[in-house]
């Protein structure tokens, strides 16, 4: 097996320098490889020695300056102040902090890039519309570079510019001036940034240009992509005999100029002339024939679930002490699902757990949005979704009973916006969450107060909890730095502070303290530079992720970047390729996972780097496709509930022994779906309270019923008939009555319609229109009316006999009577009616009785009205009740008396009495089936399912019964 790269470096150090290495500087791109090289030095030397000095490249270069490093926040404010001064000189309005922040990020990034690559500032920001000018100004450029510059400036017509172009040109002319002023400002404050340090060193303007001479030798280990400043300094120090370079590379991609993975090291060796201290670069990849396991997974999260099984198969007893393994996240958004899917193995997370993916960030973000509303915009209410998010958040630790009480109250009132002074979250870990901050100085103290409360309440158990507590501490550090900056700047608006807080805390990562030399290491591909592992597991090896297909925002267009040799997207591809390829030089157990599902975030294809390796090398790629129900579903078992044991006991005890009342809606529910009847009336699985921003027909019906009751109540019990003309007087009462009932329904205090929210106003308008239609119908079709019964849900109960196991038993039915009346129609005929109001899509029409008296009935409203009429007639002894349905949408065209489509069968007189008899037989037959132990509760897949049905998930897999042919 090949030796790890850092082992080779350690052996070379011993060979070159012996034991005298204390005055050697060893420089890496980041800190992570330092621990590994120390371990290899201990193994190579086998005895105690004085350690060399270790640095990151930025730490090493920073020794050339005595100035203080400027924070990113300080740099932003310097830039903001200077930019507004330039705008003022141009006679333009200054920009606000909020407007300038995103622009400042791009400008600072561009300035940094130009410094790192030593680009002449005045030259790149020249405004050149004439090709001749370009030829003169850029004589030292190659024809290709000159062509890139011409392509950029050709987009600006000499004759005129669009508004966007004019704005860009004004900023473009301002940028070189802003650059110089920015550098001067930092110098005045005795501050500096890393790009300035690099440029000063490369241009010979550093305070301590010979800082590196205090070391016997400087060893640069594992560098790949160098900016122009690094390349120039490295070349200079090599010529002075001060530097050695250790390149981690393979001839497979170095010797082939078409291989993007070798792009930068070829430049370093062939272009810059840097020498590899390890000598000739070996061809390891080209000579390997090892197996590579390639897993096509069915979704992003499925990658981590499959990895769980693979890790257990590879290390059933844990990772052996003499083996190393790493999980490399090409897609770093997989960290959280990975942590939730890891088996019980020792791991060390070095990639860092991003705050933005944690529950903590969601809570801070919610607090910020809430304060924007109640403190900045001075609102007294918040959207109910914000309160619901808080109640459901795991870190708020809201007590269940208090949470349910609030949810029920919001649902009862259907509050789309909740007054903050009515919110009681005193049982939570953050009881002051919805209190407005007092002033602009309260933003960061408010978040810090919340973080303190969360730290106190958090039980530090498990891997995730440990990370979250670490995140809280890291967040507090960043916030304290921000607070120090804010205090120097005077009055900053709440909205700007919140915007800056979000940007400042978004990059926070929390690394778990662990041993980087023990256990399975978890890191990003970039963090794996210089490191080798016996086993690697790459997650997210998809095209579009490896390599990424996007680049950072910039004001330096692509053509100019190419002209000046600045990084472009192709450079990012080359870096990704190198980071991926180098693991094939050493690792023995290689496992690559990618998402094979095509969706808006995934191409469904493995990375092209994998395809290249498969085509160009002798590695044996073993392809495996994850088999899961997600893609190849096995039909789950249908939910069928047998009527036996506890279930039969509950059904029998409830309805036969304890005489629980069976309603018309329970009866039609059974017809629609026996399984739904079980869930709703036997198992008593109820809908949780909820708030909907869609129109609620149940609430509409309730308001209309109560309003109609109040309008007709004065007529109830009157022995004499009332002329329907008198109903005209009630039309003027409708609006106020409906307003009163809406207030009652939603537990509101209102004085007029303006106090209602938008949906409640719509409900008011529809309810009022329906009620007027009912009143006008009665006036138009009848001369006189006498009200016998109104909205009675209590008095009409009937013990109904059925046969259960051949023995008579009684069920208690009960009817909800909306209205029973006597009317005199326009022909002078007297009718006794039972009236049911409906606000939905019900109708009075049917095709034939057999389809009404059947499972999945075609007219549920007719069955329910007959149910009410039957109970009422049996209880009172009154006969001849006509069932009428008031459906506002169709009553003008169709009337209110049930009939078939052709009108040949109308529910009155002899046909009515015949149908009542048929109904009673159907009712008895259905209820005997309900209490037949041999017939289970199961859903009929042909039954109509309403969109609002909350039980659809339970009968999702219902199947039709097979019929055996004789």
Automatic annotation (TrEMBL):
The PD-(D/E)XK endonuclease-like domain, residue ranges: 661-939
Pfam families in the cross-refs: PDDEXK_1
Source organism, top-level taxon: Bacteria
UniProt protein name: PD-(D/E)XK nuclease family protein
């Amino acid at each position: 097996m090949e030796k790890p790269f850092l082992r080779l470096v350690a052996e070379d150090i011993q060979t070159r320098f012996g034991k005298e290495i204390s005055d050697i500087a060893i420089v890496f791109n980041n800190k992570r490889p330092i621990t590994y090289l120390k371990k290899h030095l201990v193994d190579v030397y086998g005895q105690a020695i004085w350690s060399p000095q270790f640095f990151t490249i930025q730490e090493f270069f920073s020794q050339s300056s005595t100035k203080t490093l400027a924070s990113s926040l300080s740099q932003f404010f310097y830039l903001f102040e200077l930019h507004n001064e330039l705008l003022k000189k141009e006679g333009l309005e200054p920009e606000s902090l909020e407007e300038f922040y995103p622009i400042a990020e791009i400008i600072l990034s561009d300035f940094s890039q130009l410094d790192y690559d030593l680009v002449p500032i005045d030259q790149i920001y020249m405004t050149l519309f004439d090709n001749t000018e370009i030829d003169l100004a850029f004589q030292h450029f190659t024809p290709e570079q000159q062509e890139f510059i011409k392509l950029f400036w050709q987009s600006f017509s000499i004759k005129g510019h669009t508004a966007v172009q004019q704005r860009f040109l004004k900023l473009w002319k301002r940028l070189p001036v802003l650059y110089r002023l920015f550098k001067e400002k930092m110098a005045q404050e005795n501050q500096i940034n890393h790009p300035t340090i690099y440029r000063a060193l490369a241009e010979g303007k550093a305070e301590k240009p010979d800082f590196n001479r205090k070391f016997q030798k400087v060893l640069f280990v594992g560098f790949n992509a160098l900016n122009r400043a690094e390349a120039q300094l490295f070349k200079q120090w090599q010529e002075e005999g001060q530097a050695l370079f250790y390149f981690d590379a393979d001839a497979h991609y170095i010797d082939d100029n078409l291989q993007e993975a070798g792009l930068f090291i070829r430049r370093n060796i062939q272009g810059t002339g840097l020498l590899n201290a390890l000598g000739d670069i070996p061809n390891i990849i080209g000579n390997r024939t090892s197996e590579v396991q390639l897993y096509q997974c069915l979704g992003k999260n499925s990658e981590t679930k499959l990895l769980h099984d693979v890790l257990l198969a590879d290390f059933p007893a844990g990772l052996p002490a003499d083996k190393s393994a790493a999980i490399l996240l090409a897609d770093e958004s997989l960290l959280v699902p990975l942590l939730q899917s890891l088996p019980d193995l020792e791991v060390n997370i070095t990639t860092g757990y991003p705050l933005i993916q944690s529950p903590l960030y969601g809570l801070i973000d919610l607090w910020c949005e809430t304060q924007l509303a109640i403190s900045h915009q001075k609102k007294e209410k918040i959207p109910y979704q914000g309160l619901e998010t808080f109640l459901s958040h795991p870190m708020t630790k809201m007590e269940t009973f208090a949470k349910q009480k609030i949810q029920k109250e919001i649902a009862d009132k259907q509050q789309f916006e909740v007054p903050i002074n009515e919110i009681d979250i005193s049982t939570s870990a953050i009881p002051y969450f919805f209190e407005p901050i007092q002033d602009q100085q309260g933003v960061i103290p408010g978040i810090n107060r919340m973080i303190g409360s969360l730290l106190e309440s958090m039980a530090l158990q498990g891997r995730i909890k440990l990370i979250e507590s670490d995140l809280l501490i890291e967040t507090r550090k960043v916030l304290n730095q921000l607070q120090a900056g804010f205090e120097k700047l005077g009055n900053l608006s709440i909205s700007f502070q919140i915007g800056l807080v979000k940007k400042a805390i978004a990059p926070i990562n929390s690394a778990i303290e662990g041993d980087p030399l023990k256990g399975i290491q978890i890191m990003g591909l970039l963090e794996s530079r210089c490191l080798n592992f016996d086993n690697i597991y790459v997650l997210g090896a998809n095209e579009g992720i490896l390599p990424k297909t996007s680049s950072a925002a910039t004001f330096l267009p692509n053509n100019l970047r190419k002209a000046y040799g600045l990084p472009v997207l192709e450079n990012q591809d080359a870096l990704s390729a190198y980071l991926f390829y180098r693991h094939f030089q050493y690792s023995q157990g290689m496992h690559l996972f990618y998402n094979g599902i095509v969706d808006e975030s995934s191409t469904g294809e493995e990375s092209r780097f994998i395809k290249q390796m498969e085509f160009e090398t002798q590695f044996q790629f073993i392809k495996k496709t994850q088999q899961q129900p997600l893609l190849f579903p096995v039909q789950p078992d249908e939910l069928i509930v047998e009527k036996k044991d506890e279930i039969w006991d509950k059904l029998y005890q409830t309805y036969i022994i304890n005489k629980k009342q069976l309603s018309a809606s329970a009866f039609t529910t059974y017809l629609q779906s026996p399984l739904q009847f079980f869930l709703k009336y036997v198992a008593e699985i109820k809908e949780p309270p909820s708030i909907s921003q869609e129109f609620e027909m149940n609430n509409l019906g309730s308001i209309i019923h109560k309003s109609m009751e109040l309008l007709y109540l004065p007529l109830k019990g009157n022995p004499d008939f009332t002329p329907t003309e008198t109903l005209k007087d009630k039309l003027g009462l409708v609006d106020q009555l409906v307003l009163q009932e809406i207030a009652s329904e939603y537990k509101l205090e209102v004085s007029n319609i303006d106090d209602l929210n938008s949906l409640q106003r719509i409900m008011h308008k529809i309810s009022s229109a329906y009620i007027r239609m009912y009143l006008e119908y009665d006036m138009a079709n009848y001369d006189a009316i006498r009200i016998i019964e109104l909205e009675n849900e209590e008095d009409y109960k009937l013990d109904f006999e059925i046969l259960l196991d051949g023995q008579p038993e009684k069920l208690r039915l009960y009817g909800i009577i909306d209205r029973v009346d006597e009317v005199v129609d326009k022909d002078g005929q007297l009718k006794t009616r039972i009236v049911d109001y409906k606000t939905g899509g019900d109708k009075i029409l049917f095709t034939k009785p057999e389809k009404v008296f059947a499972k999945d009935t075609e007219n549920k409203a007719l069955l329910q009205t007959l149910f009410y009429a039957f109970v009422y007639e049996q209880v009172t002894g009154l006969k001849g009740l006509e069932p009428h349905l008031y459906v506002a949408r169709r009553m003008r065209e169709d009337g209110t008396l049930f009939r078939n489509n052709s009108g040949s069968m109308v529910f009155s007189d002899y046909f009515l009495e015949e149908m009542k008899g048929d109904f009673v037989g159907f009712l008895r037959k259905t209820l005997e089936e309900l209490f037949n132990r041999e017939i289970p509760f199961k859903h009929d897949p042909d039954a109509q399912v309403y969109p609002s049905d909350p039980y659809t998930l339970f009968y999702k897999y219902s199947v039709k019964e097979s019929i055996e042919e004789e």
